[in-house]
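Lecture 7, part B: from sequences to assemblies.

Below are the input chains for today's worked example.
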Amino acid sequence: EAGVVQSPRYKIIEKKQPVAFWCNPISGHNTLYWYLQNLGQGPELLIRYENEEAVDDSQLPKDRFSAERLKGVDSTLKIQPAELGDSAVYLCASSPDSAETQYFGPGTRLLVL
Amino acid sequence: AQTVTQSQPEMSVQEAETVTLSCTYDTSENNYYLFWYKQPPSRQMILVIRQEAYKQQNATENRFSVNFQKAAKSFSLKISDSQLGDTAMYFCAFMKTGTASKLTFGTGTRLQVTL
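Predicted structure of the full complex, as C-alpha cells:
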C-alpha cells in the first residue's frame, strides 16, 4: 500500500514569493492534516480536513496561508507571500477517519531567503 | 488544552542495550490515545506504538514497549536490543478521542545508538 506522498521534498524561495505544497493521502483516508514543524520542535497542526471540508483551521495564519482539498483527495497548501519565518518542514498526514492513527508523509522542507 | 513534555533532549545507548525514553502529559480528558513516533534523519515520521487510555495493558510492538501510568500521566517508551537503525528523534504525542483529533506532540528526544 502506498504511503502519503508529498511534493516537492525541498523548496528554496526568496521572501515575498509564493509557494505551494502538494499532498496525496493514503487511498481511502478521509481525514487529511497539514502540520508545521520548526527546527527542534514537534509538529503543530495547521489545518485538518474531513473529506473536502476544513473542520479545524484555527492555527492556520489566514492572512498568508491557504489550503484546499478538492474532491476530498489531494490537498494543496499555499503561502503567499512567504516570509523568512516560514522556513520549516511542512508535513502532511492522513487517517481513515478523525479518530484513527495518523500516517505521515516525508514532508517538504522550505527555506525562505 | 493538552501538553506533552519530554524532558530528555538527547540520549545515547549502545547497540543491543535497552533504553527508556520518558514522556509526561497533562490533560483533563479521560478518553484519549498516546503515541510514540520516530523521525529518522530522512524526516519521515513513522508510528512506533500506540496506547489507548482505557486499556490497562501496556502496548508492545516487537522490541518496543510502553509503561503507561494513567494516574501519573506518564507514558515511557522502552527500546530493547537497540539497533543502529533506531537512531532518530522520538516524539511522544497525545490525541483525545472523538472528532477533535489533533495530535499534540512533545519536543522530542534525540536517540543515538552507538557501536
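Note for the exam: Chain A touches chain B at residues 31, 33, 35, 40-45, 48, 55-56, 89, 91, 93, 95, 98-107, 109 (CB under 8 Å). Keep this in mind when comparing with the next example.
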